[in-house]
Amino acid sequence: MNHLLLLVLVSLGCESVCSEGAQKYDQTWRFPIVAIPKIERAPEIDGTISDQEWANATLFPSLLSRDPLAGDGVPPKERTWVWMCYSDEALYWAFRQDLPPQELPVQATAESGRDNTEGSDNTVNIQFTTRIGIPEQFNISGNAASILYDRRFDNGEGKYWDPPIVYKATTTPAGWSGEMKIPFKVLDLENAPAEGSQWNC
């Protein structure tokens, strides 16, 4: 089975803890490498996470809280599950987020219009780069109404990007969940990454 290797940095708090001096040592000592498997049958992107659909995907370790949440750098009280896999044509990721009772049921503020969710809604974000050495390349997020927000930073502009990404979300009794398909061609890749490729996520 082929694997894409993710050096997990941003999702585990790199921006708040990595110093200039920290860059001098092998970052995998502090931030784990997560192997992402290549799958033969892609999941259906409908916002509902099926155990069977995502059985062959990687389930990430527990994530850590970051500013502005209290307890920066420790596991949150309510867990967010993240799965990831890829096919010949796209990267797939899914999440399920539990929320405190006072934040239920989940209600999205932005219900229409691309790029309207950041700062106004509870969103789940993925920030990653396909090239080691670039601190931030792509930022993609979505809310509970299936509204996407995306930007890319590798050209120095931080511009809205609006690629044809497929994203669906749905509410659950304990919070909400979502699924996303990111075609490799929108990441400027002609094909799926070679086995053993490393990305920062």
Write up what this structure looks like.
The protein is mostly beta strands and 201 residues long. It has one domain (3-200): Immunoglobulin-like. The chain has 1 helix and 12 strands; from the N terminus they run E-H-E-E-E-E-E-E-E-E-E-E-E. It has one helix at 14-17, and strands spanning 3-7, 33-37, 58-59, 80-86, 90-98, 124-128, 138-142, 148-152, 159-160, 166-172, 175-183, 198-200. Strand 4 (80-86) and strand 5 form a beta hairpin. Residues 3-23 have low confidence and may be disordered.
Describe what is shown at a glance.
The chain is mostly beta strands and 201 residues long. Helices cover 2% and strands 32% of the residues.
Write the layout of secondary structure elements.
Layout: E1 3-7, H1 14-17, E2 33-37, E3 58-59, E4 80-86, E5 90-98, E6 124-128, E7 138-142, E8 148-152, E9 159-160, E10 166-172, E11 175-183, E12 198-200
Parallel strand pairs: 1-12
Antiparallel strand pairs: 1-2, 3-4, 4-5, 5-11, 6-7, 7-8, 8-9, 10-11
Protein traits:
201 residues, five-stranded antiparallel β-sheet, Immunoglobulin-like, globular
